[in-house]
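LAB NOTEBOOK - FOLDING QUEUE
OPERATOR: T.R.
BATCH SIZE: 2
PURPOSE: Compare the predicted structure-token outputs for two unrelated chains run back to back under identical settings.
PRIORITY: normal
REVIEWER: second-year student, initials M.K.

ITEM 1
FIELD SEQUENCE / FIELD STRUCTURE:
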Amino acid sequence: MDLLEFVRNLTLGVVGLAWVVFMLSWAVGWVLKGLPLPFVRVKKTGARIIEDTVWAAFWLAMGTTVFAAISYVVSVVYQPMPPPPTV
């Protein structure tokens, strides 16, 4: 495995896991907010979780952009060395 493959695999793994955690917390937030219980505290907790997941989605998108830029830079910089010149 070369450096380029390692960076791409790491990027895909981290971003994929982050989106799964985002979707899970989004679902939990809406479930808590929509529960037919008379407890306002539970509904407020659900609303807070939803608000936090919106911020998480924003930062996840920003992080994905940074990871994509790093992957691009590595793919441009990591070129095989040319053979030495022969005289």
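ITEM 2
FIELD SEQUENCE / FIELD STRUCTURE:
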Amino acid sequence: MNQKITFATILVAFSVFFICFTNASPIELSPRAPGSVCYADFKRAISGRITATELWGKTLRITGQLNTGFPNRICKYEFQVTGHPKKPVPSNIIFPPGTAPFQFDLTNEGIENVAGKTVTFFCSGKFIDSARFVLV
């Protein structure tokens, strides 16, 4: 009887050791842990959300989808983040009445470059809508 309890005890101890030390790693070493996140919610002429997530290596990942506000693929759409020049919205993501989901990475950019700033959209030079990036 003592041998069975001892064997069972060793088996449980080994299992606990294996589970605890093979799956656990400090958060600082985990490559999946993202940095800061901010988002801009559009609720007027444009509806949808754009999210900016700071990744490792000073990379900023921009994801989002805008559901309304882009009624025509022929128009020249542009966006501008406060303090930066206007940039064109790629026509391959515009599917009226909105956009397809999109994602792109900006290298050598940090969350401080967009947090608290306003992103504004234009159609052929005319203002459509704007929203402020809010830090989570």
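REVIEWER COMMENT (ITEM 2): The first strand starts at residue 37 and ends at 43.
FOLLOW-UP: none requested
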